Each structure stands twice: as C-alpha cells, then as structure tokens.
Inverse folding.
C-alpha cells in the first residue's frame, strides 16, 4: 500500500522531495544541521502509517471524482471545484493525520496551510485538476514529519 | 442544503425519528422529562450546520461510490465493502462533527459507536448497501444533539 | 519521568494492573488469546510517551490542588470537587492522549468513560480525594493501549 | 463567570482589545470592511461559552501556580517556566476551544501560534510571569472569533 500511495501522490503532482522541502521550510530554522536524508526517512515513516494511507486513498479519490464526469451531487461538485474555503472536510482529514503526531504537527499544519509554501502554492494553481484534498493531505504529512523531527531532536 | 441532507439520509435508510431515538437512548436516563419535540429540534439544528451538511454529502457519496461500479482503487473498495474496523476515516469525519459540540458529544459518540443501538444496528446489517460512513455520521449527529441537550439542561 | 508517572498513578490509587484489566475489558472480546504480559507492554509503551507523561503530571496536579487548601478560584474548585459533568477540560486532556493512537482509541475511550468498569468505578467513589482528571487519564491510557493492540492484531 | 474571565485575562496582561487586534490580523485581509465593534462581539461570544471559560480558569491557574512558591513537581515546574516547546498540554487546551469553531479556527490558531503577532509576542517576553497557557488560550479565542466571522461573512 505504501508504494501505491507514493505513486498516487506523484500522479497528482507531488513527489517525496516536494514534501521534504516543506519539512525543511517548517523545521530548517530550528535544526539547520538536519540532512535531507533524515527528513526523507521521517516523511516515509509517516506515509507508512495505515491511517495516513487511508486518508491519501480516500481524499485523492474524492478529488478525482470531482474533476471527472462521474455523477455526484452538483452542489458538492461546485464546492470542490471552487475549493470553497468554508468546506472543511479536507482539513478534517488532515487533522486525522496530524493528531497522530501530537500538537506540534497541528500547529505546523495550520501554519503551512495559511502560508502555502513551495509545492502547496503550485498545487493551488492547478488548472482543471481538483486538489481540494491533495494540498491538505500533503501539508499534514509534512507537518507530521516535522513534528517527529522536533520530538527526536528536542525541538 | 438542509432538505437535501435529510432526504439523503432517508434514502440511505435513516429518518430524523431514528436519530431522535438514538438521542433518547443517550440522554433519556439523565432527562426522563424531555419531550421528543425538543430532541427533534436539537437534531435539526445539528443538521442545519454547514460543516455537518458537508460531512453528510461527502461521506454518503463515498458509501455510494463504493457500492457502485464506478472505478476506484480495488483495495480501498474491499476495505469499505468489508467495513474493516481499522479503516478510520469514517470516524475522523464523525469527530469533525462531534468536536463542534464539545467533549460530551465525543464521549457519547464513542459509546454509541460501540453499543450500536437502534438504527445503528440495522444499518450494520445492510446487505449490499455500503454504510461505512452512514453509521458514523448518524451516530455523530445523535451524539451532538445529545450534547446540546445536556448543556442546555445542565447535565 | 516514566517511573515518576507510574508512582504518581499508584499514589492516587491506580496500578498498572488496574489499567491492564481495563484493556482486557475493551479488547478481550476481540482477542481472547491475548496474554496479560502483552497488554502490560502496551500500557507501558503508552505511559512512556512524553505527551502522556505531561498529561499525567498536569492533570493529577490539578486534582491535588483542588482537594488541598491551596488558594484557587472558588467556582473552579466547586466544579472540580463536585466533578460537574459539564466541565470538560479533563476529557480534552484525555483526547490529547487518545488522538495519538487514532480513532479506535477515541471510541474506546468514549465507551469506557460511560461504562466506568473496574478501577474507573472505584475512582468515582473516592471520598475526599478529587479524581476529576485521574479517571479520564486512566481511561485514555487504557483506550490507547487497546488501540495499539487492535492495530497490531488486525482488528 | 464571563466577567471573571475577562478580568482574569486583563490581570495577566491581555485586554479584549488585544484579542480584537489578533482577529483583525487574521481576517482583515479577507474582510477589510469589518468593523472593530463586530469583531468585539464575536470575541465576547467566544468567551461567553462555558467550555472556553473552563479553559481560561484552568489554564491560567496552572500558569499562576507555576510562577508561585506552591509545591509542585519540580520537573513540571521547570518545563513550564522554560516554556519548553515539547510540552503540548497548552496546545491541547487551545484545540479544545478551536474545535468548537470548526476547521478554520484550527488553521488560524496554528498560524497565529507560529507567527506570534501583537499581544502574543508581548506575552512571550514576560519576565517572571509564566504565560505557558495564556498565549495559547488567547490565540485560540482569537482564532475562534475569526472563524465565526469567516463563516458569517462567507469566507
């Protein structure tokens, strides 16, 4: 399932390297000595978690259905295609990931979700692709990996 | 949107009356004097909330896609059709509802999710219908309405 | 810090064995083959987590201050000594623990918090000791250990 | 209880006006037309909520005990006086507030907790006063008020 999730993220436009860069954005200030290899291991361990894989599979399925011709509630489709900020189920899924990694993951996610650095900005200029869940899930994975590193290095 | 959500729940087999009965199951012990009409108002006010409506539309869409022929990840479909207990995205959505109503809603939901009284038991013997999200969303609405009543009546 | 937390729980009336029994109550039905030794390891690993230790130290400090003569807001003291059900900060701390162990931990906690089996019932008949935070923290540790076992054993 | 909470916040160095400014920082970009009076009403309605009042009373009590001579676990006191970033019970209490106001409140809180604008920066240069819980509670109240405004104004 791990390989499938990584491949799925890549198909939607996000590589593990992109996520590593987000973690660097979050933690680089506190831990300038950290190597990309260590961060990559942390990102991989987050994606290896069952709950995270379920969130990836479920969230990206919704994104793909919204952008397809598959029959769905027209109001929900309109909300998703417009990425309406009052729709919060994507954030709810993201918290489901962050919660597993403690309070530092949650504040990191809130921060990155407002700042939209790196790949998160690109994802938000997506043309016809629907990325409502993608950006929150990617942000949550990065925030969780950053929290792991903070706990390991003593913040 | 409210009417659509109520209709959608009914199409999937859950009436407002069923949810009222769940609230009675949760709060009747503490408030034997409460009238069904008051509980109904509380249930309706929960469903009137935007975040709750988004959870209903999104969760029930996933249930319907899983039971349809629409192309989706076969592993995710197998998990959903088997209602695997280690899949927790349905609970994550339910917490997204309960969190809005405070800690009493969360413990009520956890309790009802294990006990499966009334309509929740029926939903779980569903034949070919996929009710992975339905039962958690219904349980969360009932738990939230019960929490509202508890706060209002001082218990 | 681990040893201190275990000792603190014992001073307040809860042994590791009591928590093991709660986990058995939660998971015994699903995993009758599980040995107490395995459960004990799971409980110990939960208490070894930094966030859990912080919750224990902080929550039990509040209980002890409430029952002492130390100056505190009289309204808050009255709420704590009466263990008013609308006070939910104890549950908030408990969710802070359960969230780290996923959605199964949260539903288990909600269930156990309503049923109050074993040591949780004893804690609630405490005489002059204030156990507002103790019972929720103990329930959360048991629910988290049960969730670990469920994930490990595939249920 | 409302008046007591406002007074308590003021005694610790935070006025309602300071919180209004935090909300402006969070929402001003999206709603430049909003009047301070409307924001003030939103802040007041958050503080009028029972769960929020309990969080204020409990959190600020811990801050005050930490800075006092009252006997407490020396390790916990050291953590609090140093405002160690790996101590997350203050954030857990803040989430207990934000959760009541939906996902926008949570991301706003995460953002403000990293950026520390206005009064939050001042609180963090506190001299001998212990503000571990104060800054998170104030940030959570502001983030919740901002979420209310966002939902009301349609962003």
């Amino acid at each position: 399932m791990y390989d499938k999730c990584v491949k799925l993220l890549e198909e939607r436009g996000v590589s593990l390297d992109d996520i590593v860069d987000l973690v660097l954005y979050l933690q680089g200030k506190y831990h300038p000595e950290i190597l990309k290899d260590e961060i990559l291991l942390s990102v991989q361990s987050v994606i290896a978690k069952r709950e995270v894989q379920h969130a990836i599979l479920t969230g990206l399925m919704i994104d793909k259905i919204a952008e397809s011709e598959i029959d769905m509630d027209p109001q929900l489709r309109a909300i998703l295609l417009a990425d309406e900020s009052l729709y919060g189920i994507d954030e709810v899924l993201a918290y489901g990931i962050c919660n597993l990694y403690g309070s530092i993951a949650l504040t990191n996610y809130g921060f990155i979700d407002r700042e939209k650095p790196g790949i998160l900005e690109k994802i938000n200029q997506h043309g016809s692709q629907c990325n409502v869940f993608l950006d929150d899930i990617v942000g949550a994975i990065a925030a969780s990996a950053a929290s792991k590193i903070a706990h390991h290095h003593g913040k």
In short: The mean pLDDT of chain D is 93. Residues 132-153 of chain D form the longest helix (22 residues). The domain at 2-153 of chain D is CATH 1.10.3760.10 (YutG-like).
